[in-house]
């Protein structure tokens, strides 16, 4: 046994998860099915986590924003408009290039964040309808997101934060893009779910909208839903998007009214 | 008529001011080296720092809740986020009672316009190696403290450092964040289950005596001896510029990085080539600047730890 362990990279494991997961499966899940239960962080079902937003987090970028919703912490940097890659074909309109990555310590088990390969393209699709691509022809705007810590509802936070960073960079958009997700747990709808709630959800809906135009740029629906529930969840999402939009606007106003360094 | 002319005069005045400003900016972009040398003659830098002065530095502990220890360090605009996650491994047969530290430095695409996803920055692996060398050779962490059961189980500390904003002196900031993360580290309480695996135990379980004594009781904090601190300087002709910004590093390319530990012993001296050769006197000046800087950094770190304990 000792001989085996002298290999170059010793295999390691996190001491926590195995035991905890079993306990959760046995005990906690039924609680979510009841009509009356308390969310792990004590929120009401239709309360979002308090949002902390700040622009100008990264000085070397054209624009950037930091978003913190509970334990979900995200930084987005925007670079450009700058020269497109050499291999790109000529284009009359601008290009939007998006990338979402996770830190190795973002989730509770090390190195699990890289499972979200689809987030980059989802971020791109959520934003491209809102950005006025014809305002920067032949060039590329890069939107790079790094999830510092994953605490649930990561993609909606990334999308909202990215649109704030685009605004900070002075990229023209039809409107700010805001995104909110709702999870369906048994008979209940919970807004802005945390990781724990997401892992037990029966269904999930995420709406990305431009609130002041009342337009939806992206809607994803997965899992088990009934039609009336979908209507209810959509209304919840759109209401929250509208409010989040106001918070983002006031964040931008503060940034411009604050004295420049 | 008269009004109009006055108006026009007003306009020319404004544009005249603008032209003056533009000229300085254009000069800076077209002749960056001459722009800097003109400043150096006056013993001042474009950001109004004297040559030997470092930028404002802050340290915040516990920035990442999902990690066992974490810290955010800022030197000027350069921002580093370091986090440690503890995992269990079987120790190597040659050192059965020692744990291990794996250090990785990342430069994600958000930190600089020069880094693109999929094409990692050239500096990142270099800084990664330097950090590993410095942290392991400084003896700051006693590897024996990372042992759980001799020959059976020991801690593997994964230290990951992310550069969130790259504006020069990356190594200094990365090392500061790493040292701060170690001083914030809380090792989880663990015990051995029936299958022989090491599992974490929560505080309630320990207090309620539902589980036998945790394996590492009283060993939840590392004793850090003589933490290393670094200062990078630029050598340019007879001038020494401490704590350079990214712009300064790109214009004047001879860098010297000195690492001293808290007691003032030399841990590492790194001068990766460059156009200017260092005289003994320049080397001594760099070390003297670092000695001052170590005192500053130690004070900043102690204050950060005290702030954390108050909260």
UniProtKB/TrEMBL annotation, chain A:
One GO MF term attached to the UniProt entry: RNA binding
Principal subcellular localisation of the protein: cytoplasm
InterPro entries: ExoRNase_PH_dom1, ExoRNase_PH_dom2, ExoRNase_PH_dom2_sf, PNPase/RNase_PH_dom_sf, Ribosomal_Su5_D2-typ_SF, RNase_PH
Region spans: Disordered: 1-33
Cytoplasm listed as a keyword: yes
SUPFAM superfamilies: Ribonuclease PH domain 2-like, Ribosomal protein S5 domain 2-like
Keyword Nucleotide-binding recorded: no
Annotated localization: Cytoplasm; Nucleus
Record domain Exoribonuclease phosphorolytic: where: 48-171, 175-236
GO cellular component, one term: nuclear exosome (RNase complex)
Keywords assigned by UniProt, alphabetized: Cytoplasm, Exosome, Nucleus, RNA-binding, rRNA processing
Name of a matching Pfam family: RNase_PH
Biased composition (Polar residues): 1-30
Superkingdom assignment: Eukaryota
UniProt GO BP: nuclear mRNA surveillance; poly(A)-dependent snoRNA 3'-end processing; rRNA catabolic process; rRNA processing; U4 snRNA 3'-end processing
Record-stated family: Belongs to the RNase PH family.
Protein's name in the database: Exosome complex component rrp41-like
Annotated organism of origin: Thalictrum thalictroides
TrEMBL record, chain B:
Keywords recorded for this protein, A-Z: Cytoplasm, Exosome, Nucleus, RNA-binding, rRNA processing
Main subcellular localisation: cytoplasm
GO cellular component terms listed in the entry, alphabetical order: cytoplasmic exosome (RNase complex); nuclear exosome (RNase complex); nucleolus
Domain Exoribonuclease phosphorolytic residue range list: 54-188, 228-276
Localization of this protein: Cytoplasm; Nucleus, Nucleolus
A Pfam cross-reference name: RNase_PH_C
Listed InterPro entries: ExoRNase_PH_dom1, ExoRNase_PH_dom2, ExoRNase_PH_dom2_sf, Exosome_comp_Rrp42_subfam, PNPase/RNase_PH_dom_sf, Ribosomal_Su5_D2-typ_SF, Rrp43
GO biological process, one term: U1 snRNA 3'-end processing
Lineage: superkingdom: Eukaryota
Single annotated GO MF: mRNA 3'-UTR AU-rich region binding
Family the entry assigns: Belongs to the RNase PH family.
UniProt protein name: Ribosomal RNA-processing protein 43
């Amino acid at each position: 046994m000792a001989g085996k362990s002298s290999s170059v990279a010793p295999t390691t494991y996190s001491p926590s998860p195995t035991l905890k997961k079993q306990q959760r499966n046995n005990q906690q899940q039924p609680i979510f099915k009841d009509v009356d239960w308390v969310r792990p962080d004590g929120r009401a079902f239709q309360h979002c986590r308090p949002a902390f937003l700040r622009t100008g987090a990264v000085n070397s970028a054209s624009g950037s924003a930091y978003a913190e919703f509970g334990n979900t912490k995200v930084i987005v940097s925007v670079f450009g408009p700058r020269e497109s890659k050499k291999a790109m074909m000529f284009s009359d309109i601008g290009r939007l290039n998006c990338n979402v990555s996770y830190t190795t310590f973002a989730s509770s088990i090390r190195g699990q964040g890289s499972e979200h390969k689809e987030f980059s393209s989802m971020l791109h699709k959520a934003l491209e309808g809102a950005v006025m691509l014809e305002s920067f022809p032949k060039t590329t705007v890069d939107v790079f997101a790094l999830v510092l810590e994953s605490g649930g509802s990561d993609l909606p936070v990334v999308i909202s934060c990215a649109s704030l960073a685009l605004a900070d960079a002075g990229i023209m958009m039809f409107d700010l893009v805001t995104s909110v997700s709702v999870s369906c747990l048994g008979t209940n709808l919970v807004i802005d779910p945390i990781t724990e709630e997401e892992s037990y959800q029966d269904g999930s809906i995420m709406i990305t909208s431009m609130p002041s135009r009342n337009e939806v740029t992206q809607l994803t629906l997965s899992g088990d839903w009934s039609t009336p529930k979908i209507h209810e969840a959509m209304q919840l999402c759109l209401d929250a998007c509208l409010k989040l939009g106001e918070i983002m606007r006031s964040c931008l106003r503060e940034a411009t009214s604050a004295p420049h360094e | 008529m008269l009004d109009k002319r006055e108006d026009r005069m007003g306009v020319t005045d404004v544009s005249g001011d603008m032209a003056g400003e533009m000229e300085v900016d254009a000069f800076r972009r077209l002749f960056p080296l001459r722009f800097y040398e003109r400043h150096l003659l006056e013993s001042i830098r474009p950001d109004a720092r004297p040559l030997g002065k470092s930028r404002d530095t802050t340290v915040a502990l516990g920035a990442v809740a999902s990690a066992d220890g974490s810290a955010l360090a800022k030197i000027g605009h350069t921002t580093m986020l370091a986090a440690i996650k503890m995992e269990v491994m079987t120790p190597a047969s040659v050192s059965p009672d020692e744990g291990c530290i794996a250090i990785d430095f990342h430069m994600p695409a958000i930190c600089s316009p020069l880094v693109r996803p999929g094409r990692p920055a050239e500096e990142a692996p270099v800084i990664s190696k330097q950090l590993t060398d410095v942290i392991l050779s400084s003896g700051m962490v006693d590897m024996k403290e990372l042992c759980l059961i001799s020959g059976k189980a020991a801690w593997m500390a994964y230290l990951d450092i992310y550069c969130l904003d790259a504006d020069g002196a990356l190594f200094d900031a990365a090392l500061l964040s790493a040292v701060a993360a170690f001083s914030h580290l809380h090792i989880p309480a663990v015990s051995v289950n029936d299958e022989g695996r090491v599992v974490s135990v929560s505080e309630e379980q320990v207090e309620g005596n539902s589980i036998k004594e945790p394996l590492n009781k009283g060993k939840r904090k590392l004793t850090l001896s003589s933490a290393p601190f670094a200062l990078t300087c630029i050598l340019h002709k007879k001038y020494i510029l401490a704590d350079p910004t990214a712009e300064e590093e790109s214009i004047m390319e001879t860098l010297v990085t000195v690492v001293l530990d808290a007691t003032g012993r030399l841990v590492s001296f790194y001068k990766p080539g460059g156009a200017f050769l260092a005289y003994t006197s320049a080397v001594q000046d760099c070390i003297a600047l670092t000695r001052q800087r170590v005192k500053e950094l130690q004070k900043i770190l102690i204050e950060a730890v005290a702030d954390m304990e108050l909260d």
